[in-house]
Design brief:
Elements (H helix, E strand, L loop, with lengths): L2 H14 L3 H16 L2 H4 L3 E4 L10 H9 L3 E8 L2 E7 L4 E4 L5 E4 L8 E4 L3 E3 L4 E2 L5 H6 L5 E5 L5 E2 L13 E3 L4 E3 L7
Parallel strand pairs: 1-2, 1-6, 6-9, 7-10, 9-11
Antiparallel strand pairs: 2-3, 4-5, 7-8, 11-12
Bound molecules: adenosine-5'-diphosphate and magnesium ion.
């Protein structure tokens, strides 16, 4: 196995070992922290993933962002990359080949913030994903603020970073906010 494959296994096991209650509590705290950030308060167009397996649960966050009248979209597989499809109260859904839920609708053209899922992250804001590079391809095409959300146990000492890995601008966990300039707010 490669170093990235080993790390994926290690960190997927860590999130799998959290209880349903632990994941729910942390996901609510993360949503709360995120909603309090100026970058979110000052942004209208937000792309947010629909949580899958042991990722930080975004369902509460999506409800709150909808209440705040944000324009939301969620990722949909589009060849080797992702596209942002608009999400609102009337949106219908399907499941893609990985069994991840996807909205049906039109593409959101402008995105201010992308809320990014991850398997692990480190202090230099390197992201480890599930291994297909979809988010690397998607994020390289946007100027949007790249905001990872994660459980604190997903923080690694140091992750390998290839030149195709797109760094995040910040990561929010239930305990901290990590940024490139070391500030704990965004
Ligand atoms: P993940 O980001 O999901 O952890 P990797 O970083 O290992 O996964 O990337 C998965 C694959 O996608 C690798 O072979 C990587 O080279 C490829 N990849 C990532 N970004 C790009 C890109 N911008 N163009 C082409 N291939 C890419
Ligand atoms: Mg990558």
């Amino acid at each position: 196995m490669t170093e990235k494959e080993l790390l994926r296994k290690e960190y997927l096991n860590k999130t799998a070992s959290l209880t349903v209650a632990e994941k729910k509590e942390a996901s609510l705290i993360i949503a709360d922290k995120l909603l309090n950030c100026d970058i979110i308060k000052n942004s209208k167009n937000i792309n947010v993933y629909l949580s899958f397996k042991n990722e930080v649960d975004t369902s509460f966050l999506i409800k709150k962002l909808t209440d705040c009248k944000k324009n939301l979209s969620a990722p949909v597989l589009n060849g080797e990359t992702l596209k942002a499809v608009c999400l609102n109260e009337n949106t219908g859904f399907t499941f893609n080949r990985y069994n991840i839920k996807e909205p049906q609708g039109k593409v959101q053209q402008d995105i201010d913030v992308v809320i990014v899922p991850l398997v692990a992250f480190d202090g230099s804001l390197t992201r480890l994903g599930r291994g297909k590079g979809y988010y690397d391809r998607f994020l390289k095409e946007t100027n949007a603020f790249k905001l990872g959300i994660a459980f604190s146990s997903q923080q690694a000492e140091r992750l390998p970073c290839s030149k195709l890995d797109v760094k995040l601008d910040a990561v929010i966990t239930e305990k901290d906010i990590f940024t490139a300039n070391g500030k704990n707010y965004i």
